[in-house]
Amino acid sequence: MFAREHIEYKALDLPDRNNLTDEQMLDEAKAFYDKMKRRHTVRDYSDRPVSREVIDECIRTAGTAPSGANHQPWHFVAISEAAFKHRIRLASEEEERRFYDGGAGEEWLKALEPIGTNDDKPHLDMAPWLIVVFAQRWGHFDDGTRFKNYYVPESVGIATGFLLAALHHAGLTTLTHTPNPMKFLNEMLDRPSSEKPTMIIAVGHPSKDAKVPVVAKMKKPLDAILTVCDGA
Ligand code: IYR
Known about the structure:
Order of helices and strands: HHEHHHEEEHEHEH
Largest sheet: 4 strands, antiparallel
Number of helices: 8
CATH topology of the domain at 47-207: NADH Oxidase
Bound molecules: 3-iodo-tyrosine
Radius of gyration: 20 Å
């Protein structure tokens, strides 16, 4: 995508502008908060399928995220094939057994108690799609030579946030899953060792009896997460 000889600054007029009134802005901000606060991380999925097109559009949205030097240091692998998902489940559960059998350490396991997680990961079979997020430590010019990427965790974190918001906006439910370690995903999904898997996102519709942990609804209030310096 990047040609070594085309690296130079060129500008175009801002192609898109919002022209909302102050009142409309506040309405939009409130409506978006209202939408986003209804996103829940869910572990129990129904067998309702999700079309490839919806996944494509949401990944397109993730790809609009800002990134260090606009290098877009991410790659997404979307999996719907049942046998493939099952292989990922088995490998994840193997890692997770070590984690929950003590590998995580006492403090971490205690912290997870209110979330109710364990090494059983049926959602990796049940959710119609798994999206694996990879972070690219370096990229390649068109001529095959390597260039370094910058702010990789930040960039991939933002893109993943865009993706979760896009999936929620499209009416889908997700689970952000982080087996530890995740290296097995490189081999299984045929991604180069320069890429680091950061997350498996299960995507689908919640089952009829889906639950969320009570603590998940306890978000910090605004005054606990915001300090304003406006001279007032
Ligand atoms: N990777 C494990 C453990 C886990 C860790 C954290 I931090 C969570 O918020 C949730 C789970 C798992 O996915 O079960």
